[in-house]
């Protein structure tokens, strides 16, 4: 354990128990059926826990492959080689306790997760700044950032509005939303009176990673995420990534695990409507089949959830509060773009595997897949090439994927001039809008895991939790919470749920 973590523990920055789990039988007594709609992280996390406790669980996933926004699927390149393509690079942070606990079902030692050295932020205007090597835990990480970061000098601190900065250190799951949910992240950042460089290099890169524009994102959500990733996180900003594609490392083993425990996982099975059926539910799918179950977990992305609820008239009677929240919840954040390039040639040997990018109009991150995943590495070794993935987390509406990919490539060349020499052999580019929006004022109406209908639960990264969580970790945590509600209703033992320090270091008690 690092010294900063020892100090952090003394002030309560450590793993916290949200739910100890247990309280029931290792397997539910009697036959219990559950349907999970959506085979991404949220749905599969729910399915894993339910199947292990003997619930007869069926996962219905609309796409031909599992994983949703962490999906992976095979593609054949023009040179005839088969390559897995993915929905995009993901950082597996170490405070993702619930997601990691699910992943241990795929590999108990998490051997497939390899540390990614460094977390640099690139800018055309300022020198690269490194975040991955800060001491892991607060308050030492914050002090080191203030002392080491060339973007924030002592005289800048004097010019800052320190009162405006205090809420960042005082995250509280109720008070932060009461005070800041109506403010935008942009307004909060402006009120700090940071030097432009510090704002760009330390804050904007971070808030972009939540798939929302600062001017349209709640300041309370930004404070919550600063707490979750930096100011309340005992594990640090360093992260890990699978060394195989997500299907091989995660989805195939988790599917086998669910099936081994008697569950069923169907892909290409889009749920089209939900109807009340006696004490339970019936989920209809596009091929005309219908699945009866006492419990249903809707673990789909926000627009898909709104569409499914709208196509299920029974919910107007049985879940009016859910129905009422859907129009706002179902509007996703701005589109995001992912472009994976297979190229001849490589960038400089000292370029990092993953880099965040600040203040480019489109480009937000660069990943060198041929230095990350084994299949890409083999392809690059064979061809002398490289596999480079570019992301934009919140881009302009209505721009085609190919054009966004080209804009991102041009912006990469401005940062790494040698990228101009890469000859593009193949490109797979996508633009999609499925990420939850965290608009100002939205928190009070954000749906939680429990709905107002008996036996109907939600899970996903847009679903509200009362403890710090975000992105993949929120999907896994809400999936487990949904499973726990079902298990408690049926006499089965619940799964433990964990998170980081629930409040900021300067949050008032009570
Ligand atoms: C480019 C990119 C990079 C990211 N990077 C990171 C990162 O570095 N770290 C991090 O923590 N998070 C990251 N994320 C976010 C992360 O991917 C999501 O938070 C997480 O995968 C969401 O999982 P989910 O299960 O909640 O939703 P989804 O993955 O959206 O899963 C929902 C599933 O439901 C299915 N579905 C929809 N409608 C139906 C229907 N009617 N019937 C049946 N199935 C249906 C969908 O096909 C999908 O598989 C990133 C996301 C993207 C797009």
Automatic annotation (TrEMBL):
Domain Amine oxidase, chain residue ranges per copy: 41-487
What domain of life is recorded for the organism? Bacteria
Read off the Pfam families from this record. Amino_oxidase (PF01593)
Record GO terms (molecular function): oxidoreductase activity
Q: Which PANTHER family match?
A: AMINE OXIDASE, PROTOPORPHYRINOGEN OXIDASE
Kindly provide the name given to this protein in its UniProt entry.
Isorenieratene synthase
């Amino acid at each position: 354990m690092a010294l900063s973590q020892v100090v952090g523990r003394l002030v309560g920055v450590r793993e916290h128990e949200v739910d100890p789990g247990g309280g029931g039988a290792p397997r539910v007594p009697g036959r219990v059926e559950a349907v999970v709609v959506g085979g991404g992280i949220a749905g599969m996390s729910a399915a894993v826990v339910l199947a292990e406790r003997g619930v007869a669980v069926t996962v219905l996933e609309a796409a031909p492959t599992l994983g949703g926004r962490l999906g992976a699927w095979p593609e054949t390149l023009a040179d005839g080689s088969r390559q897995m393509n993915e929905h995009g690079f993901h950082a597996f942070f170490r405070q993702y306790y619930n997601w990691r606990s699910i992943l241990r079902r795929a590999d108990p030692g998490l051997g497939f997760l390899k540390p990614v050295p460094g977390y640099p932020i690139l800018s055309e205007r300022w020198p690269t700044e490194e975040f991955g090597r800060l001491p892991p835990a607060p308050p030492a990480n914050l002090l080191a950032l203030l002392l080491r970061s060339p973007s924030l000098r002592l005289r800048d601190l004097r010019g800052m509005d320190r009162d405006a900065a205090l809420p960042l250190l005082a995250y509280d799951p109720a008070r932060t939303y009461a005070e800041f949910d109506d403010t935008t992240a942009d307004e909060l950042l402006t009120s700090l009176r940071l030097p432009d460089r510090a704002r760009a290099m330390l804050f904007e890169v971070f808030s972009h990673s939540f798939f929302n524009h600062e001017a349209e994102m709640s300041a309370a959500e930004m404070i919550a995420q600063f707490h979750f990733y930096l100011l309340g996180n005992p594990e640090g900003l360093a992260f890990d990534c699978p060394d195989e594609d997500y299907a091989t490392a995660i989805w195939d083993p988790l599917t086998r695990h669910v099936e081994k425990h008697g569950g069923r996982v169907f892909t290409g099975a889009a749920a089209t409507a939900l109807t009340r059926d006696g004490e339970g539910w019936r989920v209809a799918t596009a091929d005309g089949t219908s699945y009866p179950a006492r419990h249903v977990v809707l673990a789909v992305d926000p627009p898909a959830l709104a569409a499914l609820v709208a196509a299920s008239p029974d919910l107007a009677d049985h879940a009016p509060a859910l129905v009422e929240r859907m129009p706002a919840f179902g509007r996703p954040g701005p589109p995001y773009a992912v472009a994976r390039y297979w190229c001849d040639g490589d960038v400089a040997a000292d370029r990092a595997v993953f880099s965040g990018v600040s203040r480019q109009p489109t480009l937000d991150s660069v990943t060198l897949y041929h230095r990350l995943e084994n299949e890409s590495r083999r392809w690059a070794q064979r061809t002398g090439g490289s596999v480079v993935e570019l992301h934009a987390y919140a881009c302009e509406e209505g721009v085609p994927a190919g054009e966004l990919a080209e804009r991102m490539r041009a912006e990469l060349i401005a940062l790494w001039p040698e990228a101009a020499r890469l000859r593009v052999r193949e490109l797979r580019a996508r633009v999609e809008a499925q990420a939850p929006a965290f608009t100002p004022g939205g928190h009070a109406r954000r749906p939680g895991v429990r709905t107002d209908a008996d036996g109907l639960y939600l899970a996903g990264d847009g679903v509200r939790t009362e403890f710090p969580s975000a992105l993949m970790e929120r999907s896994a945590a809400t999936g487990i919470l949904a499973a726990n509600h079902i298990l408690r209703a049926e006499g089965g033992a619940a799964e433990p749920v964990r998170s980081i320090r629930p409040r900021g270091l300067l949050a008032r008690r009570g």
